[in-house]
Amino acid sequence: MIPLSIPDLRGREIEYLTRCVEDNWVSSAGPFVTELEERMAAICNCSHGVATVNGTAALHLSLIGLGISPGDAVVVPDWTFAATANAVMHAGATPVLVDVNAENWTLDPQCLHRALAGEEGRIKAIVAVHALGHPADMDSILEIAAVHGVPVIEDAAGALGATYRGAPVGSFGAAAIFSFNGNKTVTAGSGGAIVTDDGVLADRMRHISTQARVSQDYRHDTVGYNYRMANINAAIAVAQLERMDEMIAAKRAIAARYDSAIRGRNDLEPMPRMNWAESCCWLYSVRTKSTEDADNLVDTLNEKGIQARKFWRSLSEQAPYAKSPTYANGVAGALGGRIVSLPCSSNLSQADQSIVIDALDAWTG
Ligand SMILES: Cc1ncc(COP(=O)(O)O)c(C=O)c1O
User: 66 with 116, same domain?
Assistant: First the structure.
């Protein structure tokens, strides 16, 4: 099988992991955790980084760090990974599902505006997702959020390295989260990070992530979580960050080659990329004309030894979120089930990509 998106571990991962073992720093403290936090903050032009066990925990921590609590409502895009809305539920709040726009598949400012007006002050935070590595329209979102005095959290789980109007994602919201899951361009095996400019918020999140312990003699001042990243995961992430630019360049080259291979087709459309953004091209995905076409494309590619997979469905059509307040324009519903992700690991060879392109050429929707 040509894999969909696998880690590229050709840097100093083994060397750094060996160092963890030799120095006996394998758990949820250690020099690589600190280094990862500093590197993430620097990449995102922020003052603080907080390393977490995964991106979902990073989202949950950001929400509770910003004071989200039961009874509050939080905007999430209707078209995102379930983790975005799950984290809101973990905080005891209600997700308000806001549609994405047809142009770029990220949070639609008009629907966002309607949601904030419709929910009459209940919305206490907005989570803007940089979908598939493509930034959301941050200027419009921040402008609307500012009118209502609501903080924005960037869910940049798969968007490390993307830029919006020349500035890195992660540098716009009150906080931003990243995932280092195995399918991300930069992985830690499993892991996440939060970046923020707010030192008080960073301290609070770090505190809650370590069971809210205030002293060595087991005193705790609030309900905490065991959300801190382990040094062995951070060691992998640091080695990966050293090669981040190279890996993202490879991803962008893969995306450009797919783009030109399918240009002009009316049965396959590349993921949109706006001129105000530079996507990090995390997971190259195409839109087919129908869910049947998407199923057929996935089956056809799989039969040829090519791993392809259908991507997110709208949350409003999923059991846990079917009754959530929704501000729709029909786009998330229409995307759901029609998007197919193609092999795009940063170490995908040209020869393997040619095999995928030949299979796409032979397929008609
Ligand atoms: C948009 C989005 N948010 C959050 C997450 C959660 O990250 P993790 O899997 O590290 O918990 C993901 C994971 O892919 C994601 O795509």
Answer: yes
